[in-house]
Structure formats: C-alpha cells, structure tokens
Amino acid sequence: MENDKDVLEVRNLKINFNTYAGTVKAIRDVSFDLRKGETLAIVGESGSGKTVTTRSIMGLNSPNAVIDSGTIMFKGQDLLKKSRKQMDQIRGRDIAEIFQDPMTSLDPTMKIGKQIAEPLIIHKGMKREKAYAQALEMMKLVGIENAEQRINNYPHQFSGGMRQRIVIAIALVNYPEILIADEPTTALDVTIQAQILDLMKELQAKTNTSIIFITHDLGVVAGMADRVAVMYAGKIVEYGTVDEIFYNPKHPYTWGLLNSMPTMDTSGTELPSIPGTPPDLLDPPVGDAFAARNKYALKIDTEKQPPFFKVSDTHYAATWLLDPRAPKVTPPAPIIERQKHYAELVHEELNKSKGNHVEEQEEQL
Amino acid sequence: MIDYSDENKILQVEHLKQYFNIGKANEVRAVDDITFDVYRGETFGLVGESGSGKTTTGRAIIHLYEPTSGKIIFNGQDVSKLDSKKQKQTFRRDMQMIFQDPYASLNPRMKVKDIVAEGIDINHLAKDDADRSKQVEDLLETVGLNKDHSSRYPHEFSGGQRQRIGIARALAVQPEFIIADEPISALDVSIQAQVVNLLKKLQRERNLTYLFIAHDLSMVKYISDRIGVMHYGRMLEIASSDEIYAHPLHDYTASLLSAVPVPDPEYERARVQIPYDASQEFDGKERSLVEIVPHHWVRASEDEIPMYKKRAQEDSRLKK
Ligand SMILES: Nc1ncnc2c1ncn2[C@@H]1O[C@H](COP(=O)(O)OP(=O)(O)OP(=O)(O)O)[C@@H](O)[C@H]1O
Ligand SMILES: Nc1ncnc2c1ncn2[C@@H]1O[C@H](COP(=O)(O)OP(=O)(O)OP(=O)(O)O)[C@@H](O)[C@H]1O
Ligand SMILES: [Mg+2]
Ligand SMILES: [Mg+2]
C-alpha cells in the first residue's frame, strides 16, 4: 500500500460493458484510496459510474462487464485477480454492502434472526447459538426494540426504516473492514434518514469501519463524508476533503452540482441547473467529457482530456481551468461566496495553529 | 402574487376522511379529517413522513377513491356529485397527476407519442392524425424533448427524460390543476433542478395550480407558495413556505425541519436535531386547525393557543 492508512487502493480502473449496440466505456481510468475509519462519499449524476465502481470492488459486476485494466488492492492483494469463490469469502467477511432498497437485499421468506446470523455461521464457522447471540446483540446495536422477540419476525413485519436497520445489522455483523453504502437512505423519509445516518456514524466510531457512501443528496454528503470524490462520465473529476469540495470547489461540474441544490435560503424564479445530458459512453468525446455542457469550456477541452491539477495535498481537480495558461474565469456568485468563506476558515485555522505555536514556545522558555 | 381571496379558490378539501378496511381489524385511517384550500395559480406543498397520508390525499382529490366522509370541491363543484358525462369528462381533463416513479408509470410497450397522446385520444382533442402528431411534437418541445423522440420507447430514456414524458402526458389535455406526487424524488440533483424549473415555467405560462407532494423539504420550500404538514393522517400546520420555515409552530414541524440535511459541512457539524414526542397528539384533547397569526394555521386545543401565539412572535426558531 502506498499509504499505510489506506485500506483500499483503486488504480487506473477501466471497465467496459459489451452490449448489442457496442462497447459502453463505463469506467474510464478511475483511481482513489480509502483510508482506515473514514467515510468517502462518491457523488455524480445518474450513469456516471458510481455503482459500477463499487460493484467491481465487491466482484459483483454483471456478466457482460469486461475489466479493461486496473488494480484494486486490499490487504496487499489485487481483488480483481481473485476467483469467484475467494470473493465470496471476502464479501461475507471483509467488505459488506447495503443497497438503496432494503427489500431487495432481505429474503422475505426467512426470519431476520437467521438472516443476520447466517454469515457468521458460513464465514466464521461459528456455532449456531453463538451466532444467534451475536445477531441479537447486533439488532440491539442498530436500535431494534424488543430484539429478543423480533428476532423471529419476517421482513414484512418491519417498517421501511427498521428494515434498513436490519440490512445494516447484516452488513456489520462481521465487523467488516469496508462498508459500501449505495444510496442507503434515498428510499427513506427525512426523519428515518436522520436516524439511519446517525446510526452509521455511531457504529463507525465503534468499529472503525471505512465507508464508501454513494448518494446524490449533497446535504447527506456534507453531514457524512470526510472526503468526497465527484464522478462524471466514468471518471473522477475532482476529489478533496469535504470542506475543500463544498467551500473551494474547482471543477465546473462540481460548481453545477452545488448550485443546483436549493438550500432553505434559495429563492428566485429559476434554479441553476446543468443544461443538457451526459455524453454517450458508447462513444465518449475525445477531450473533456463535460465540455459540451460547460459554459467555461476552453478550446483545448474539445481536444485533450485534462490531467489532474493539484490544489492542495488533499485536493485535486481535472479541469483545464487550473492550467496556469488558462484565462481567469469568474465562477457563479454562490461559488465565489463559498470560496470567500473557505478563505476565512483557512485563515482562522492558520491563526489557531500560530496561537498554539506561540504557547509552545512560551512553555519552552 | 397569488390572489388569496375566496373567489380564487380552485380546490376546497373539507373534513376529508379516507379510511381503508373499515370495520376490520386492519382498519387504516389514512386521512383523518383534513381541511384545506388551494388557490388558483399557487403551488401548495404537502409534506410529512412516510405513511402520513400524502398520496392518499392526492388520490382522494383526483377522485380515485370515494371519500369515507367529507367533501372535495373543485371549481365550485363537489367531485363526488358530478352527474353528467360531460362534467366528469371536464373534471378528468382539468385535473391531472404525475407520479413519483418515472419507470413504473409509463407503459413500456407504448411509444412515447402514444403515451403522450393518451389523453388527446380519450378526449378526442385532435382533429386528425396530423393534428395529433403536431400536438405531441409541441408537447415534447415544451418539456425539452425533441420530436424525433416520439417514436421511441420509454426504456430508451433516462429518469429525468421519462419524468418529462410524464409531464407532457399530463399537459396534453390542458389541465388547470396538477397533483405531482414526489415527481423528482427518483432523480438526481442536477436533473431535479431541470424538472423543477420546467414545472415552474409551465406554471407561469399556463397559470397552473400544483399540489406538490414531497419529502425533500428544501425543494418543497423552493417550489411552494404555501406548505401543509401532515402526520398520522392529520394536517398539523399550514402557512406560507417562508413563514413555516421561520416559525414552525408545531413541534412536529420543527422536528421535521431539523432533520433535513443541509449541503454545508459546517452547518451539518453543528446541527442539533429536535426530537419529537408524538404522544402529545394523543392526549385526548379536542383539537382543530386554528389561525394563530394571519394565514398561519396550526392544529391546537383551546389551551394551547396562547403558547402558539407566543411562538409565532419569537425570532426564527431554527438557526437557518
Ligand atoms: N450491465 C450493463 N450493461 C451495459 N451498460 C451498463 C451495465 N451496467 C451499467 N452500465 C452503464 O454503465 C454506466 C455507469 O452506470 P452506474 O450504474 O455505475 O451509474 P451510477 O453512477 O451508479 O448511476 P445512478 O445514480 O443512476 O445509480 C451507465 O452508463 C450504465 O448505463
Ligand atoms: N389501498 C390501501 N389499503 C390499505 N391501506 C392503505 C392503502 N393505501 C394506503 N394505505 C395506508 O394508508 C397510510 C397512508 O399512506 P399514504 O400512501 O397516503 O402515505 P404517504 O404519506 O404518501 O407516504 P410515502 O411518503 O411513503 O409515500 C399508510 O399507512 C398506508 O399503508
Ligand atoms: Mg447507482
Ligand atoms: Mg406517497
């Protein structure tokens, strides 16, 4: 591993799908790291490749998927080189996933106690009693009341929010190293969503699990993520800490995303939206895939894909606007506001650390 | 500005009750005595947690159900008492519904032009085939699709495009009133903004009235003139959207607002969620909607009125 805090390193991942219409280039050179105990949010438009990326980590892509190149390093081994049987093991034990719709991941004909205990019996060879005891503990941990009785209930006897808690219990019962959450709260209402998000944070604090969180709700990202990766048309176009992405975004697509979400203060006749539709991945454009929808596009955008430009040690963006030769553009007003705010934040931070420094010196004297 | 005089009421819901499985062990009081009005040209947002009765209210208004009791008056007429075929047909044109799931609500075996023209055909609104095609093309253009989309099937479209097809279908019969049941929940952020802008533009151009059902409160606030908050089949609070965010009177409303994630990391770190204890709704006191300050209604008992009056005068109850 390049960084000893990393639990997962994805490098140069390219995934194609063979379809009757041709080859869909769904993932076009994606690289990222996941650190121990962090939450990495992946955001981006529908079809940008969020699910395909995480499905490849799980070894669960559909049969027409072709891995064109790349590595996914986990505990010193490349997951892309594992057999299906080895991946089954890893999935039950080290990497777990929760999906958008709790109903599709629960077996309607099986009591929930059994559904939670089964991975322990299968993957850990645990005795039945012990596995059920741990299942019961997990049910309590995720906040299911009367767990002793409810362990014998079937999924349909629970509300949507409770079902999602059960799915989380199943995913976490083995204390996995990595949890992949693909839109885990999109189907829930805000009240239940708030409970589930709090629960995930609380469990993460206890188990130090690393989470990859996929969502299109930027409010959820702001509350959950330590770092954020923004995807567009099969590529990561910007990544950084949650503060860097929200307060100092550099990619015009990220600007568009942030602007199209109304806050409680947004008013006016028209919400800023990103015009047009994403490119056809059967035949992706030569240059920057976002160029056609980008009012800040430069000539070079139609000719050459932008490399990642470094904004800070933790923040990178793939846009030609960051090239020193590029003309200065004025981003939309709300983005400028955010950037001003960011400058103040950074300034405060600097002052704070200066203050500490002075104290230390005084102590030394 | 919306004209909030009595003459401008397009819809009056009076003491509507909609129960299911009446008298059986599994009786559900999905909507339990709600009263509210909607004015011509406005957007009335309906929010509340899952199961609170929002969809049932919408379906009762468009007369998919016969009310258990109470009345729904649309354009001055009780929708349960439309006798003549002509009256029924007019009602079915004037009020339309768009649905949450753009995937499930379009027939996969029908071409887009036939989906959009469904209402035109039923109501014989086209002179001939050429006129029908022309109308469909205009509708597709209105919703931002192009005319060569008309011979394609729904699966060839993205979620946002499918939702546009649903909107075109609703517009085909030139309705006055549209019930939009979570029309953007299934779409991603950037497409949500496109669809919301489209709905607002159509409203301006055609003086449409919307009943907008959703649980994404930031979008509801943005699109709605007034908002009604439902819980357990009851209407707990009604006010203009600015007022309800500044002064949520009912504890449930305040709790619901505090649960909304805000796209701002610092705000999220500092966020305090307000818990809600629903038992206060079941203390046996008699309650009804009371107008606490002009145009701001809350479900209250006699003795709670002074407390709500005080709340309405306080500074904004939520931080943002
Ligand atoms: N089995 C498949 N065959 C062909 N194309 C596929 C297949 N699975 C995914 N794709 C394509 O790969 C691209 C990425 O899809 P993916 O499901 O990862 O998007 P996403 O970012 O998760 O979107 P959403 O927000 O809608 O879930 C899309 O263009 C999609 O159409
Ligand atoms: N046809 C029906 N038969 C029996 N019960 C029903 C029926 N339709 C709705 N209900 C029940 O009525 C209550 C209100 O449901 P409704 O669909 O109106 O809620 P909602 O506010 O739209 O919720 P959501 O946000 O989940 O869509 C729920 O308890 C629901 O299970
Ligand atoms: Mg997905
Ligand atoms: Mg509903």
From TrEMBL, chain A:
Which residues does the UniProt record annotate as the domain ABC transporter?
10-258
Q: Which GO terms describe its cellular component?
A: plasma membrane
As one GO molecular function, the record gives: ATP binding
Provide one Gene Ontology biological process annotation: peptide transport
A Pfam family of this chain:
oligo_HPY
Q: Which CDD domains match?
A: ABC_NikE_OppD_transporters
Q: Which domain of life is it from?
A: Bacteria
- Cellular localization per UniProt: Cell membrane
Asked if the keyword Acetylation belongs to this entry, the reply reads: no
How does this chain sit within the bilayer? Peripheral membrane protein
Q: Which UniProt keywords apply?
A: ATP-binding, Cell membrane, Membrane, Nucleotide-binding, Transport
Signal peptide span per the entry?
none
Q: Which family does it belong to?
A: Belongs to the ABC transporter superfamily.
Protein's name in the database: Oligopeptide dipeptide ABC transporter ATPase
From TrEMBL, chain B:
Under the heading Pfam families, the entry gives: ABC_tran
Listed A to Z, the keywords are: ATP-binding, Nucleotide-binding, Peptide transport, Protein transport, Transport
Q: Ranges for the ABC transporter domain?
A: 11-257
Transport in keyword set: yes
Membrane topology term reads:
Peripheral membrane protein
Localization of this protein:
Cell membrane
Which superkingdom does the taxonomy of this entry point to?
A: Bacteria
Which CDD domains does the protein's record reference?
ABC_NikE_OppD_transporters
Q: Which GO terms describe its cellular component?
A: plasma membrane
PROSITE patterns in the cross-refs: ABC_TRANSPORTER_1, ABC_TRANSPORTER_2
Extract the GO molecular function terms from the UniProt entry. ATP binding; ATP hydrolysis activity
Biological processes annotated in GO: peptide transport; protein transport; transmembrane transport
Q: Which SMART domains match?
A: AAA
Principal location: membrane
Protein family according to the UniProt entry: Belongs to the ABC transporter superfamily.
Q: What is this protein called?
A: Nickel-transporting ATPase
Source species, please?
Lentilactobacillus sunkii DSM 19904
Q: What is the lineage of its organism?
A: Bacteria, Bacillati, Bacillota, Bacilli, Lactobacillales
